[in-house]
Structure formats: C-alpha cells, structure tokens
Amino acid sequence: MASRFTPLAGSSRTGTAGLSPSVLPRATPDPDLPGFASLGNRAGPWVSGYLASGTRSVALVSTRLTLRDRFGNLGVRLGVRRNRHRVTAGLYAVGAPNPASPVLVTSNYKLTFDSLRKELAGIDAWILVLDTRGVNVWCAAGKGTFGTSELVAKVSGTRLGEVVEHRELILPKLGAPGVAAREVRLRTGFRVLWGPVLAADIRAYLSAGKRKTAGMSVVRFGLRDRLTLAPIELVHSWPVALAALALGLLLAAPWGAGWMDQALAATVLLEGALLLATLGFPALLFVLPFRAFAPKGAVLGAVWGCIASLALGLPWGLGTGLTLVSTAGTAWIGLNFTGSTTYTSPTGALLEVERSLWPCIATLALGLGISVLSRIIGF
Amino acid sequence: MLNTSYVLNGTSLVIDEAACVGCGDCLDVCPHAVIALDGGKAWVADRGACMECGACARNCPVRAITVKAGVGCAAAIIQGKLRGTAPSCDCDSGSGDCC
Lengths: 379, 99
Known about the structure:
With 379 residues, chain A is of the alpha/beta class. Chain A has helices at residues 67-77, 110-117, 137-143, 148-157, 160-163, 181-188, 202-207, 214-217, 223-227, 230-236, 238-250, 259-284, 293-311, 316-336, 346-378; strands at residues 6-10, 47-53, 56-61, 90-94, 103-107, 125-130, 168-172, 191-195. In chain A, the strands form two sheets. A six-stranded mixed beta sheet of chain A has the order 1-2-3-4-6-5, sandwiched between helices. A two-stranded parallel ribbon of chain A has the order 7-8. In chain A, helix 10 (230-236) runs antiparallel to helix 12, helix 12 packs parallel to helix 14 and helix 14 runs antiparallel to helix 15 (346-378). With 99 residues, chain B is α+β, with helices and mostly antiparallel strands. Chain B is elongated. At the A-B interface, helix 3 and helix 15 of A face helix 1 and helix 3 of B.
C-alpha cells in the first residue's frame, strides 16, 4: 500500500534529494487546499517537499523548527502579527506516511501547528489542519470554529477517505467542546479518538496503542502556563502604563520645589502595581487568598500599595489614595485574568463581574479623589 | 496538586442518571476529570473542578448531560454586556480573529 505514495521532492533537511517543490505542476482540482496541489508561495519554510499520488500532492511538513519559526513564535507571544500567524488549512504529511498511518487533527494557528509538528520527528502521520482562523484548538473549540462542521468539511474536502484506508481521526481532547464525535462518524464514517491534551504526549500516546494515561488527560496550570500570556498582557497594557505615568506627573502639581521626587514616587507605586498585576498575579495565583480573582488581585494591590507608600515615604493622604488606586487596578487586572486560565467557569466569571465591577470603579474613583484632595489640602 | 477550584465552578452541570447509558464518553472528553463512572452510571465526582466547557454535553449520545457552556472570561462577559450580545472572546477586534 505504501507504494501508492512516492516522495516527489524533499529538502536536504529531511535527507531526500529531489526536485524543488516549486517546479511541481499544479494539480487539480483546487489549488487552494494542500492535499491537492503545490502550495506555491503560501508554502512556508516548514513545507519541505511534496508527497504525490496520481494527480494529487500532499505537502510534507518538516518536524524541525527553524530559527525563523522560533522568532515568529516569540513575536506572537509579544503581540506581533498575532492574528496573521496561520498555516493554510488542509491535509499535510509528516515522515513517510502510508494509508495505514494515523491522522492527527489540529488547528491552523501557527503556534499550535508548530507545537505538534516538532513532536513528530521519526513518526509517519497525516496532519489534518482545520481552519480555526488562526486560533488555538481549545479557544476555537469553545467558539465552535474547531468544530463538527469544519472537521466534516475538511475530511470530505481533502478526500481523506481516498488517502487512508482506516477510518480514525485523532483529535486533541481539548477540541471536544466543539466537536460531537458521533456526528462526525455519522457524516463522514470516521471515528474520533480523543488524543492527549498536549502535543508533547502524542508520541507516547501513539506508541501505547492510542491510549492516554491519566496524566495525558487532564489540563494543568503550572507556573509556566500561567506566565505564558504575561508578555503579551504587558505589551497590551501600554495605555495603562502611560495613564499611570500621566497621573504620577499630574499629582506633582503645581510642580514646585522637589516635584520630580514626588512624581517619581507616585509613578513608581502605580507602575509597580501594573507590573505586579501582570506578572506577580499569575505567578502568585494559588498563593493569594480567596478563590475569586478580583479579591485575589485586590489583596495583592493593597499590600503593594501599603508597602510602596511606606518605602517611598509618601504623605499619608497621597499614600492612602494611591493604595486604593493600586487595589482597584490590580483587582481589575486580576478579574480579567479569568480569560487566561484553564479552569474558570462562565457562571463564576459572571458572578465576579456582577459583584466586583462597581466596587472596582468606586474604589478607583475614591482613590483618585483622595489623591487629588491630599495634594490640594496637603495631607 | 494546586487548588484550581473557582467560585461557582460546575454549578450548571447536571447529569440525568436515568438517561445515562454508561458509555463513558463524557469521562474521555472532560479536561478536569470531573465525571466518574460507577455501576454503569456517570456522576459528578469533582464539581469544583468543572469549568463548564461543554465537552461532555456535546459528546453525550443520549443528551443526558446539560451544562451552561461558555467562556469563563470576565472581559468577554463585560464586552457582551456592553454590546448587548452573548459573551464572546473576540477581544482585540470585531473580526473574530483573536482568541
């Protein structure tokens, strides 16, 4: 069966010499889908060649991340071209797959695609990439873009049934909120197997005969996971950082003798609170008291405000005011971290929003009021 | 193990024991090992760990599970309230391009 597929071209990276992918004639019928034709200029550097069968060709994916891949992924973590970090959806090959090789389904977010392919060195498999508009599997499953209809469309659109002889699709189990496995089977004949949560476990999963261990089945939220989004949150918080700077400068009005020291002290307290909310909050998430995120953040901001006020020698009025600002701000940023976790429920988040939105705004207003008043009256 | 329980987690998760056929599919798709199988019936073993993602309900063959699935994200909820729509996590543009 394997002879149905012959490698047409490969880069030196995979060790197979041959034609360069670009000289492959375009095949019918749909040049837009890998699985049918050369990707042309949309083939990223991760496409190392093509596998061909009759008039069909399937893009062969490299399992090694290049420096360019790594820089691209680093950039995305900092918010550079985040929404355009995508792979063309469709069918890909990795290694030297034959019709009996497993089909791994993933999303077209380049970070996701990369984290899968880098785990596949030495493995022969097909990769079916769904169009999730550049969003990772779990988030896309929640929205339904990594969903039943997209999966069914890609299975039939790539004519997967002609490529493989078995009828199994391996999906990351975090795709389950969007995919009804039984419906997929009814509509395509393919059975969905729920694979491990992490791509890093795919090798162990495959070699154990497509069985998950308990460890592969649950989502964790370790320190590294919690800080993954910190850089991008930091980048996105520049307007707040600017506002904190402006507030620090304003509170030094009327800019008499020693105004710079005053402005610096206020700014250090405020920017420190922002930094702490963005980096310290995720890191200390499980150390901070309370289960709800806004109170967790409030505690962090209040403690910081008190410590910074004393350390920086702020007048007690201004110190109180800015501590309240810090408390409200950190609570707010903490509340928004609910969107970055792996375990917060919509019911809980709704309750938190309802309970803490106005207290946050009121505390912020009170803090600003006391700060300004302390400067005017002088306490 | 870290305590990853959140306020009101799993509140909306209901398993209709009479309808359950004990296939175990819900156990297989749950990311937090919330559900267990006992005597051919699925039951909620760790409600506090349930983030209401909806994977179990979507994959139950007999619709024995109901859960108010959605995004557990405050920003999405606030945005939904402001726009008067359902909570959505299209955070930095209206194009539906971002997580």
